[in-house]
Specification:
heterodimer, A: 45 residues, B: 160 residues, alpha/beta, five-stranded mixed beta sheet, two-stranded antiparallel ribbon, 4 helices, 18% strand
Chain lengths: 45, 160
C-alpha cells in the first residue's frame, strides 16, 4: 500500500515502513526485521 | 506520488465516481483492547489475494475489484496457497510468504508472550478495490462478523 493512502485514510493505528512495495514486512528470510516490525505494530496497542 | 493524479487516472480508467477515502478531518475510531495484549487472541487480515488452491480465485478482472474474502486456517499448509492479485510483484511472497503474511513470526510473538494466542482462522482479500461501499459492507463487515464469532480481540491488517 502506498504511504500516501495511509496518510489520507488515517487508520487509528498504523506503522509506516520503507520496505519494498510487495514486501510490507521486509526482505525474504529476514526474520529479525519481520519480527521487529511486528513488534512495532503490536506496540501500537 | 500525487494521489490526486492517481485519483484522476483511476476515474478515467475505471469509474468517474471513484475518490480516495479521506479521513484526515474525521475522529479516529480507536477501540482500546478489553484485555492485555498478552492475553488477547489475534488474527491477520491480508490484502495479498491469498487463497486455497481448491477455492475459487479472486476475480482480478473485475473492473472495480473483487470484494469477496477467503479464510485461511492456522493449520493450513502455506505452501499450498495461491495468489490472485495483479497489482504487486509476487517475487517476494513467492520466496518467503512471511514478507506479506507473517503467520510464522506471529507464533514467535505468542511464544515470547507478547500476544496471547493466534486465532484459528485468518482472512484474505484481494486489494485494489475501488468499490469502497461494498468493501466496507461486504468485505469488512463479513470479516468482522467472523472475528466476533471467533472471539478475536485484535487484528493485524497487513496491506500489500
Amino acid at each position: 500500500m502506498f504511504k500516501e493512502v495511509g496518510e489520507l485514510n488515517q487508520p487509528p493505528r498504523i506503522v509506516f515502513t520503507d520496505n519494498d512495495f510487495g514486501a510490507p514486512f521486509g526482505q525474504p528470510h529476514d526474520e529479525a526485521s519481520h519480527i521487529k516490525l511486528l513488534k512495532e505494530c503490536f506496540a501500537q496497542f | 506520488m500525487k494521489l490526486r493524479n492517481v485519483e484522476v487516472f483511476l476515474q478515467r480508467k475505471y469509474s468517474r465516481e471513484f475518490v480516495f477515502v479521506d479521513n484526515r478531518n474525521e475522529v479516529k475510531p480507536i477501540t482500546p483492547l478489553t484485555k492485555p495484549l498478552n492475553e488477547s487472541k489475534v488474527a491477520i487480515i491480508t490484502s495479498s489475494g491469498l487463497f486455497k488452491k481448491e477455492e475459487k480465485a479472486f476475480d482480478t478482472e473485475a473492473l472495480l475489484g473483487d470484494t469477496t474474502y477467503r479464510v485461511i486456517e492456522k493449520s493450513d499448509d502455506l505452501t499450498t496457497l495461491n495468489i490472485a492479485h495483479t497489482h504487486y510483484d509476487h517475487k517476494f511472497i513467492k520466496e518467503d510468504i512471511n514478507t506479506v503474511y507473517p503467520i510464522k513470526h506471529m507464533e514467535t510473538l505468542v511464544e515470547e508472550k507478547m500476544i496471547g494466542s493466534l486465532a484459528d482462522t485468518h482472512y484474505s482479500f484481494c486489494g485494489f478495490v475501488l468499490d469502497t461501499k461494498n468493501l466496507i459492507e461486504e468485505t469488512a463487515d463479513g470479516i468482522l462478523n467472523e472475528l466476533k464469532a471467533n472471539q478475536v480481540d485484535a487484528v493485524l491488517l497487513a496491506p500489500v
